[in-house]
Amino acid sequence: MGYALAEQNGESVAVPRLVFAHLGRADGDTIRVALYLLGGGGTDPRTIAHDLGLSSQEKARRALQYWAGAGLLVSDRSGPVLPSAEQKAAAIDLSTINDPYVSVLCEEAQTIFGKALSRGEMQRLVALYLNDGWQPDVILTCCSEVARQGRRTIGALSRELLKWRDAGVETGEDAEKYLRRQAMRDHWCEEAARLFGIEPSQLTRWERSAVARWHEDWQFGADMIEEALLHAENHRTVRYVDGILRSWKAQGLTTVQAVRGKGQLSGSNILATGTKPAAPKTDLFQTNWNAVFDDDTEG
User: Fold this and answer.
1) Residue 216 per-residue DSSP state
2) What one-character DSSP code corresponds to residue 199?
3) Strand, coil or helix: 128
4) 3-state class of 133 per DSSP?
5) What does the alpha-carbon distance between residue 155 and residue 142 come to, in Å, rounded to a whole number?
6) At what angle do helices 136-148 and 172-196 cross, to 10 degrees?
7) Pick from 102, 45, 105, 38: which is nearest to 73 by CA?
8) Is residue 143 packed enough to be buried (19+ CB in 10 Å), middle (13-18) or exposed (0-12)?
């Protein structure tokens, strides 16, 4: 059954051809933001995210940046220079704010950091709430996290919150999920470092992401990593083991029993006994996994 445009009975809005030119490149949320703007919506990211039901304010910000780069939005360069975040914070008069969350933020943050905050630091703290749109419970949760890391400054708090925003954290529930995920990743990295015989601090950013991928995406546990290390023999690097695990995942081998069932290892620990099984048809010991998966570059 075919379709035809229905007669327009309501108010119409002109859509520039520029938007149509980006239909194949921009994602759905970015296109929705363009239509929202053309329909008379404002450019405040928080309002856009709320009105369109976006998962985070960051998506709204990125859409605005996209359309500014595409030429749909312009900034008034002839107007006054916008104040920086520090200038906005300095402009906040704490004595005139009738908001109970402000005093709670200042008191709790000082308790968490274990020190008194200067007036400037308190202004920057309150600006995270009033200007940047962070919920008080998220700010205080982040205070606890940076304090745990030994970074008891408002600057460290601001930088950590930027990382959280990039990860899609907006609410207290989001923050708790994010911290649980980070704690689990840290545990996996400590466990992997022990298996490789190195300190966790020696793992690069790519190696840490690889370890997380083994557990989160491929559902491999420590037993599979140990098994891969047996196959790696003297090539005990994260990249080499990543190649072995990637191969097993592609073959549907998700347990140690399944791997050994393919005849790739016999016995529980060939390194301990010093004996090797007969070479299987697909000799994993002779495979150069670094060369096979050399397209994985560190990012």
Assistant:
1) H
2) -
3) helix
4) coil
5) 12
6) 20
7) 38
8) buried
Query: Model confidence over 26-75: pLDDT tens digits?
Result: 888 889 999 999 888 888 888 998 899 988 888 888 888 878 877 888 76
Is 187's pLDDT higher than 90?
A: yes
Which amino acid type is present at position 82? L
Which tens digits make up the pLDDT trace of 130-147? Answer: 888 899 999 999 999 999
Query: The dihedral of CA 225, 229, 232, 238: what is its sign?
Result: positive
What angle in degrees, to the nearest 10, is found between the helix axes of 136-148 and 119-130? 130
d(C-alpha 7, C-alpha 30), whole Å: 27
Structure tokens at 125: 């703290």
Give 240's Cβ-side CA count (13 Å radius). 18
- The per-residue b/e assignment along 122-136, b for 16 or more CB within 10 angstroms, e otherwise, is bbbbbbbbbebebbb
* CA-closest candidate to residue 216, choices 188, 244, 257, 196: 188
Verdict on whether the full-model pTM lies above 0.85: no
Helix axes 154-166, 57-70, angle to 10 degrees: 80
Contacts of 118 (CB under 8 A, 6+ apart): none
Contact 142, 108 (CB under 8 A): no
